[in-house]
Design a protein that fits this description.
Layout: H1 37-62, E1 68-72, E2 85-92, E3 98-107, E4 113-116, E5 128-130, E6 135-138, E7 143-145, E8 151-153, E9 162-163, E10 165-168, E11 171-176
Antiparallel strand pairs: 1-11, 2-3, 3-4, 4-9, 5-6, 6-7, 7-8, 10-11
Bound molecules: FE2/S2 (inorganic) cluster.
FE2/S2 (inorganic) cluster binds at residues 120, 122-123, 125, 138, 140-143, 154-156.
């Protein structure tokens, strides 16, 4: 006849280890203890905040792209006031791409200069100055801009972007956004 197994100190279950984890000994519920709903929400909130601040720090570290200063091959003394002149330029953008485009340079009545970003503010198409109509026109979707860059017609949501321009004894330099890419010739619209 089989005798019942003897229970020794070594085989006896440890009462401490068989006890269910308490909130103090298992704050994150790592042993499978249910986490109260309120505690779960707090943990999720803290996680989102931590992720958000990390993302913010990452974006801050990336920072804005530095502009690229280009020198325009034009003598402002030869420019007629009030008539935009298309001036070609080339640069290497922040992606290492070689870019060639033309910007619009305007000599104002007092002799100061205004440089317009050559990309339409609607969908980045090129636009042209039409002397006969005294306005800039974009063929992609019919956008129109006045001499001061304000929107006259069409879908552009805002005026033409102006680029910082410097005239140093006739040498004209313009700060072009470092991430500048060549505007679209046409979107086929
Ligand atoms: S891109 Fe110029 S109007 Fe659409």
């Amino acid at each position: 006849m089989d005798r019942p197994a003897r229970v020794t100190a070594a085989s006896r279950p440890d009462p401490a280890s068989s006890r269910a984890p308490t909130p103090a000994s298992d704050p994150l519920g790592a042993f499978g203890a249910p986490i109260p709903r309120r505690r779960m929400l707090l943990l999720l909130g803290a996680s989102v905040l931590a992720t958000g601040s990390g993302l913010g720090a990452l974006l801050e570290a990336c920072g804005p792209v530095a502009p690229v200063t280009v020198t325009l091959q034009i003598n402002p003394a030869t420019m007629p006031p009030g008539v935009p002149v298309e001036v070609p330029f080339s640069m290497t953008n922040s992606s290492g791409a070689s870019v060639q485009a033309s910007m619009w340079l305007l000599k104002n009545a007092g002799g100061s200069l205004t440089a317009y970003d050559p990309r339409c503010t609607h969908a980045q198409c090129v636009y042209k100055w039409v002397t006969a109509e005294n306005k800039f026109k974009c063929n992609c979707h019919g956008g129109e801009f006045a001499l001061d860059g304000s929107v006259l017609a069409g879908p552009p949501p805002r005026p033409l972007n102006r680029l910082p321009v410097h005239d140093s004894a006739g040498v004209v330099t313009v700060d072009v956004p470092g991430d500048f890419v060549t505007p679209h010739e046409s979107l086929g619209a």
